[in-house]
Amino acid sequence: MSACNVGETRNEPQNTVSGDWTSRSSRSLATTRSSSPNCGETIFDKYLDIIHSKSNLSVTNKSEPPEHPFDFFDDEEFAFGINLLNNNVACVGDNITKLIQMAQEPWPDNVKLFQPYEVEQILLPDNASCLAVQAFLKMCNLPFEVEMRWNAEFMSPSGRVPFIKCGAFVVSELDSIVQFAANKGVSLCGRLSTEEKAEMRAYMSLITNVLVNAELYISWVDNETFNAVTKVRNSSVYPWPLGWLQTRAKRNAVIKRLKALHWYDKTLDQVLADVEQCCNSLSQRLGDKDYFFGTAPTELDALVFGHVFTIITTRLPCRKLAETVRKHESLVALAKRVDEQYFKRP
Amino acid sequence: MGIVHAKVGSRCPDLHDESELVVDEQAICKHRQALNCVKARVDRVNVDGLKRTKDDIIRGTVNELFKAKDFEDVIVRAQKVRQALDNLGCFRNVCVYIDVSTGPDATPNGLEVTYQVREMSRLVGGVNASVGEDEGNVVLDFKLPNIWGRGERAQAAYSLGYRNTCSFNISGTKPILLHKFEPVVSASLYQQNQDYPWSGYRLLDRGLHVNVDLKTSPAVRHNIQWEALFRDLTVINKTSFAVRQSCGPQLKSSLRHTISMDSRDADIFPTEGLWLFISNELAGIGGSVANFKSEIQFQANHMLSEESGVVLQTSGAFGVLHDVYGTMVSEHFFLGGPTSLRGFQQRGVGPHVDGQAVGGKMYWSGALHLYSPLPFASAEQGVLQLVKTHLFFNAGCLAFPERSNFKLSTLSALVDARVACGAGLCVQIGRTARLEINYVVPLKTHARDIPVSGLQFGVGAHFL
Asked: Which domain of life is it from (chain B) (predicted)?
């Protein structure tokens, strides 16, 4: 009996692939309801049901975007899903479809950006990325409020600051936030061609590969800066001996990362040479334009602003990094321009 | 072998002459009277089987026996001493033999009491199952009992629960014997990793715990504890932001004092007696958390009728948490679940955000139970003795009053009681745990609560 059923399950799909798709499915659906079909047929019907429900789903999804003021591509939904998987986005709820729809709702007014305490806690690399995100949001004209928390990095879904809380979503770091804003139809690089977008991404990854690592190196590996600044600031929010433990643990984590990227073995001069090279290529690309891609800023400008501004304004015992960056006047000018235009303090 | 010789005490006047004349009642009574009329005196106490246990503590423990003046007294004291020897934690089993004393030093009414003891081996290990807060654990433990001969022990335990819980602890215990309050000093280092899916977080605790246990009277125990705790709270991706705010490492140092009074006749199914537990905890002696937490729990039992074995039990709990700074979700009170407020999901009462319990700073709960043995079970013995049916009615409330207008909102919040009732079966597991299968009906719930109606299943050591 059972052997007979298995044989039939194998045969059924082959028949249908060659046969008429719709008539076949409607027939089998009808049989499921009325007569009691054998085992193989029920399995096949379930399979068809799933296909039907999926096609229904995609139809509803495709029919909705036109009602929206902006065009959405599957790319962005895909990117959203990837961010969700990569722990850069956290949200309450299980229904992915519903979440994607929610993610496409317009930007609310009560968005908050969380970061560590600016005065006593924040470190050079964190400050740079927080400033970059702030600059990006201001360039997009998206309203937000800055909230400082001692445990911002632990609250962040990816473990890195800053992150924004937007409705049910918690999104961390610049890339995901850019993606998230694009999902809501807000983008700074809409006018760019595909090649320009690719170029922009390349420069952005150059910055994360060089400037961020250099900042981490200066803060955590360079002994002078570590002892005089990083240790004190990082442990400022914890009671003894937790501060010491946390600083040690974080230093080990950073060193592990730098080792994996072969940055730990570099000397300070080699690091500075890398920074010099990075700044060279950035300032060459910038030339004497206002922004990297014409007259309006993109997220690359936000990122460059975040890092350059932070590096040149943060007082560290090791002045060499700031001096290296300061030599590139066009970058400094860009930072000043963004600061004046978007961070005008009353 | 330790032998303790008695000194010749002063002859005590026979106090029982009159009572002997009055005796004319039942035979049993007569017999009892007779026992305490027989003059007796303990000449020698032998303790057989001692290897590494030190003589001084044995001597101190058995001294009690030499105060006996009649035979009944001897028996009662012998039993007491047996209990005391058992409590030293050095022996696996203790037997008592009482004999007429012989030999040159024997007195006319002299008796000789012999304790046959077996010391525990140097290393004891085991695999046990234990039940905690609605969770079963497998515990692997090693014990070094009686290390230096005075009841000191060291212990290491590793436990794994089915809900991703994993913990281990190493502890050392030193009883200070022959002291009036029987103090026990212990220190332990532990790590505990536990998931709280109802609130969407995971807690890693690493701590040092020092405890002094005092017994001020047979039914009253005091505990004075100091705990230094490293706590790391992590959340999953779907956790509500209200809980997410509590993420991050914290250091907590706290002093706690607990009093427990227990006059019940059994732990799991008591028929008479009162149990009271008061705990006060002050956190903030160093560390990043400062708060004051106070909790009181009680249980009272009364047998309604002897022949049917119906027991009425009332129990209640009340707790207040006063936050000074740094108090996170994990410190809050939670209510609901098969072991606390039945008729609700675990942590299902009180403030919830996005379906996740965020706890409260104040709670009360109370329950009224009516226990009765199974209808067809013989009351005397058998495994059915471990099963009882109960009818219950419980109520409680958990509130998170804001700091502003503290008093008013507190009162109004605590009035909003949640009520559930039901009936079910209770099964005793081992000596300390209990299993309940109940059919529950939530009678009064709040919009944010997560009630459970129908069957509810709970395992635990302490139930409301």
From this structure: Eukaryota
